[in-house]
Amino acid sequence: MRLFRCQNCEQLLYFENTHCERCKLRLGYLPDNATLSAMQPEGDAWRPLAAPGGLRRFCSNAEFDVCNWTIPADSPESFCAACRHNRTVPNTAEGDNLQRWRKLEFAKHRLFYTLVRFCLPLANRNDDPEGLAFDFLADSPDPGGPKIMTGHDNGLITIALKEADDAEREMMRKNMGEPYRTLLGHFRHEVGHYFWDKLVRDGGKLEACRAIFGDDSESYEAALQRHYAEGPPADWQDHFVSAYATTHPWEDFAESWAHYLHIVDTLETASSFGLRVQPKLDKTGELHARIDYDPYKEPDIHRIIDDWLPLAFAVNSLNRSMGQPDLYPFVLSPAAIGKLGFIHDLVRSDGQSSG
């Protein structure tokens, strides 16, 4: 993600900030400009200092402090480009629901930052009955009632509200033997299923995808049962980005999609900070990286991976120095990199046609 600054006082900002900590001006995100802007009130609207040519309004979800995105002041919409995809949101009057919803929205808005940057098609349910939509659902209060499962079904992504509880999510991570489990990871993975439908199945890329990821016509239910009964094959790291990716070609695609988004967005953050990796002990240059470009626009997947590997090694080392788990606890084999290359080409070809 880009680094943002207040146009009024030059204070550096986080993407989720709603007010500048230095000058106290309100902040609003302009998705068309990919810019977080200081805002000046003007009547019932706001004028963004980053793009003063037009007035803006805040998304209706701003009243819950879950969104800082804006829409044009004359728009008929009430919700921003990210929030209008919500189908079901939590009852904010119950327990910790508001706090959990806020965490979900922070992650979802980071997802939409990336999807908009890539110019990917983002129809909602008002545009398309199988458009992208989100249900944020809590388990039944009845101990014997049904448990909500995170997943995707024909454009509808369900996220279990309990995933926004850090302790609950960590317990699930341990129980499932996962090295990594985050809200943003859930969003990036599940939206990968949606874009498999839109870009692969409906985009004429099915055979090319099967040549890389395998035959998706295999029974998904049977594959899932086999995975949980037998686990991944012993040599899975030679072919897949994660153990869960071995379950079925759909999961392999979604996992690869999520990792591609992880990598590109983290590289953009590194680029925004002017980071370079140049270990003093590396005499061969294999762990050198100069990230001085926009990875969202980089045509060469090999350049992205060549810079990602040294950066991942560096940030993992920093985490270990703080007694924390690796930030990126994965190994990218040549086969996994080939799958990331397919995602890269798919995103770029559709994004260019959409943009």
Provide tags for this entry.
355 residues, alpha+beta, 3 domains, 4-stranded mixed β-sheet, 3-stranded antiparallel β-sheet, 13 strands
Question: Can you offer a commentary on this structure?
Answer:
It holds the Pfam family Peptidase_Mx. InterPro entries: UCP012641, Zinc-ribbon_6_bact. This is Zinc-ribbon domain-containing protein. Residues 3-92 form the Zinc-ribbon domain. The chain has helices at residues 97-117, 166-175, 183-201, 206-213, 220-230, 249-272, 301-321, 334-354, and strands at 4-5, 12-13, 26-30, 35-42, 45-48, 56-58, 70-72, 86-88, 133-137, 151-153, 156-160, 276-277, 289-290. It is α+β, with helices and mostly antiparallel strands and 355 residues long. It folds into 3 domains: 4-80, no CATH class; 82-181, no CATH class; 204-355, no CATH class. The strands form 5 sheets. It has a 4-stranded mixed beta sheet with strand order 8-9-11-10, with helices on one face. The chain has a 3-stranded antiparallel beta sheet with strand order 3-4-5, with no helix packed on it. α1 (97-117) links the parallel β8 and β9 (133-137). α1 crosses α3 (183-201), α3 (183-201) packs across α6 and α6 packs across α7 (301-321). The longest helix has 24 residues, at 249-272. It is globular. The protein starts with a strand and ends with a helix. The model has no long low-confidence stretch (mean pLDDT 96).
